[in-house]
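To illustrate this point, what follows is a protein record of this kind.

___
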Amino acid sequence: MSLVRLTNMTSMPPPLDAAAAAASSNRSIGAILVDAGRLSPENAERILRAQKEQNKFFGDAALSLGLVTQDDIQFALSHQFNYPYLAANDQRLSTELIAAYQPFSPAVEQLRALRSQLMLRWFDAKTKRNALAVVSPGAGEGRSFIAANLAVVFSQLGERVLLIDADLRKPRQHALFKLGNSAGLSTILAGRAGHEAIVRVAPLLGLSVLPAGSLPPNPQELLGRPGFSGLLDKLSEEFDVIIIDTPAARTYADAQTVAVRAGAALLLAQQNRSATAELTQLTRSLQQSGATLVGSVMNNV
């Protein structure tokens, strides 16, 4: 599991999450747990009787009887407040998506803090600054992990989020979200597919993924064509937040190209792995190319 720490940004108080301001469902905790198979109807009746006799909340009565766990209560509350996440035994997505499976963990709390800073520093619907490339110098530094989990936490805020896999060399997002990869960004840019290649992630509110698609022989040329900029312009009208995964910048120039088209980049480094000289070189390259460097993240494994 990784923790993130944001650097090169002035510390500012995080905004309140609008999605947590009011409940989106009138269903009771008991009904949610019964429907999810976490509580039997018979035990729900026992809890209701204890709730009335002891003058307790349903959750407190259920916990005192030992019929549910704290995780069950959090699961029900997340549905009441329109904050979906997946149970540990739900295998629809990769467990690397910790924001979907462990939303109350310290690592995901760090991701939410990062989300708050990014909203303050870059994302702005009025100026249409809603695309961000996640970049780093080398392989194995966690770009796909951070990009995917950032997309999840933005969707949990109630935003319309699109995660684009622009790593046309060694894509991973289709594997993390357990999607097909025959159609995607590459086939759209080659004119062989349309927006139907964008896949809505059913378990997560408001999140869609555009996989990389078939691996092309000319990824840098595809990403450098006007068609990629035009695609981002169109998608910016449909989505509030666009997170873009990229290949290793040390090996390929694709990352800088994507960052320029997106307008901004988030620089990722992995503790005890990323070289300072390479990070400095990538920073200068991004700045010289005109991409806004929003900040940097230390990914601690």
Notes: The beta strands are 3-7, 131-135, 161-165, 199-200, 207-210, 241-245, 264-270, 292-300. The CA atoms of residues 223 and 258 lie 7 Å apart. The first helix runs from residue 29 to 35.
